[in-house]
Design brief:
three-stranded mixed beta sheet, Nucleoside Triphosphate Pyrophosphohydrolase, alpha/beta
C-alpha cells in the first residue's frame, strides 16, 4: 500500500500521510478522456458510484483517480496497453508527467502517446466520504483501490509531496499509535478495514463487491482530525 506525505505548506492536512488523489478536473470529463475509460461500461460505473446522469459523469472520477496518482507518484495504475506503458524509458515517462503537470498536455494525450487506456475494471470503488458540515473546507471524496506491481518505484511530486511510503495497513496503524505517522480519519478507517484482509488480492476482490454508503462524520472540530463524536450517513 502506498501513502504519500503532504508538504508542510499544504492547505489541507499539512505534513499528513494520505493516499494519492485530488480533484476532478474539467479535462477528466472530456469526450476524449471518457472514450479512454474502458473495461466496463460508463453506465455500469455510473450505477456503481450512484452518479447516473450526474455532472461530472462517473467516468471522470475513475480518470481523476488514475491521473492524480500519476501526477503525485509517477505511477500508472489501472492502465492497460498493448506494450509496456513506460513510454519506452523512465525518462520518457517522467517527461510526459512534467508536460502534464505544467499543462502542456492533457492526461488523455499522455495515454494516447503511450497507446494506453484506463482499465476501469481494475479499479475497485469502495468508499465515499464527505467532510463534516462545520468544516471550513468541504470535500466530497471517493476511494478506489488498484494493483501495483511489486517493483514499482514512486517518485513524489515535490510541489505537493515530500515522502512516499510503501507500508502494510497494520504497520501504518502501529506507527499511528506510536505517534510517528500523522493521518486523518478517512485514511485511518480505510487502513483499519484493509488490515482485516490477508493479502491484496483478497482485499481487491472484497472491496469491488462492497456496498458503498456515504459517510458524513459529525465532528466538533469540524474536520477529519479525530474520531467523529456522532458518525452518521449522508443522504444518498
Amino acid at each position: 500500500m502506498l501513502l504519500l506525505r503532504r508538504s508542510e505548506r499544504a492547505g489541507f492536512v499539512p505534513g499528513g500521510y494520505v493516499f494519492p488523489g485530488g480533484l476532478v478536473e474539467e479535462a477528466d470529463t472530456s469526450p476524449e478522456m471518457t472514450a479512454l475509460v474502458r473495461g466496463i461500461s460508463a453506465e455500469w460505473i455510473a450505477d456503481r458510484l450512484r452518479l447516473v446522469g450526474a455532472d461530472p459523469p462517473a467516468t471522470a472520477y475513475a480518470a481523476a483517480a488514475v491521473r492524480e496518482t500519476f501526477e503525485e507518484s509517477g505511477l500508472l495504475v489501472a492502465v492497460r496497453a498493448a506494450q509496456d506503458v513506460g513510454g519506452g524509458t523512465p525518462v520518457a515517462r517522467h517527461a510526459l508527467r512534467e508536460d502534464l503537470m505544467e499543462g502542456r498536455v492533457r492526461f488523455a494525450d499522455v495515454l494516447a502517446r503511450l497507446g494506453a487506456c484506463i482499465a476501469a475494471d481494475e479499479l475497485a470503488y469502495f468508499a465515499h466520504w464527505i467532510t463534516p458540515l462545520a468544516a471550513p473546507r468541504r470535500y466530497d471524496t471517493r476511494f478506489f483501490a488498484a494493483r501495483v506491481s511489486s517493483d514499482s518505484e514512486p517518485v513524489c511530486d515535490a510541489r505537493e509531496m515530500t515522502d512516499a511510503l510503501w507500508i502494510t495497513p497494520s504497520a501504518a496503524l502501529q506507527r499511528l499509535a506510536a505517534g510517528s505517522l500523522k493521518m486523518i480519519l478517512p485514511t485511518i478507517e480505510t487502513l483499519r478495514h484493509l488490515a482485516t484482509f490477508a493479502d491484496s488480492e483478497t482485499a481487491l476482490t472484497a472491496l469491488a463487491a462492497t456496498e458503498v454508503t456515504t459517510t458524513l462524520p459529525a465532528s466538533p472540530a469540524g474536520g477529519f482530525a479525530a474520531r467523529p463524536a456522532q458518525p452518521r450517513l449522508a443522504e444518498p
